[in-house]
Write a structure and sequence with these properties.
202 residues; mainly alpha; 81% helix; rod-shaped
Length: 202
């Protein structure tokens, strides 16, 4: 009887130990599951910018670069510089058309030399005046007229384009005035309306 009681007691103790071990394992697995669920919840609710606090994202960097490339300050600056340069050039060309150019002088001297060669043999005074002086005169007027036309065209182009500063438009207006005056004088000189060629009897 004692042996059976001992065996029964041992079986009971072993069963209780097994049940306690299973309870402990269940408790530990439940705690692990709870921890993992809380960690997942934190991960899902976390802000992705918190992990990189202070560091700009690639999208923000690209937006900044696009803003710098499309900045409206660079385009008007270059356009304003080109308009100012064109206005100054037009005024300078208009002044040159009135005072004469080195190119016009060279062309006139060439025409004079050609006229002397043509009339060196048996040229009448009228032919000499026309070949030596008339052609040189007309050539100078033609060259000055080309410069005046270019000055007038550039000045009008500057005035037509919008968004020009006041002083640029003022210089362009001066270029229009000088170019128009130079073109007018060149035309009347080329067709002998301003000053006619002298005649042999005068």
């Amino acid at each position: 009887m004692r042996r059976m009681d001992i065996k029964t007691t041992e079986k009971t103790d072993g069963a209780e130990t097994a049940e306690n071990a299973e309870k402990v394992e269940r408790t530990e697995s439940a705690e692990k599951v709870g921890k993992s669920e809380r960690a997942d919840a934190r991960t899902e609710g976390a802000d992705p910018l918190d992990a990189r606090e202070g560091e700009p994202t690639e999208d923000l960097v690209e937006d900044d670069e696009d803003d710098e490339e499309l900045s409206p300050e660079s385009a008007p600056a270059s356009a304003g510089l080109g308009g100012a340069a064109a206005a100054v050039v037009s005024a300078a060309l208009g002044a040159v058309a009135l005072t004469g150019t080195w190119t016009g002088k060279i062309v006139a001297e060439r025409e004079t030399l050609i006229g002397q060669i043509k009339t060196s043999g048996a040229g009448t005074p009228t032919q000499q005046i026309s070949e030596i002086y008339g052609d040189a005169w007309h050539s100078t007027a033609l060259v000055n007229g080309v410069f005046a036309f270019v000055a007038l065209f550039v000045a009008v182009l500057v005035l037509v384009l919008p968004g020009r500063p006041t002083w640029v438009r003022a210089v362009a207006v001066a270029g229009v005035a000088l170019g128009a005056l130079g073109l007018l004088l060149s035309v009347v000189t080329y067709f002998d309306l301003f000053l006619s060629l002298p005649t042999a009897g005068s």
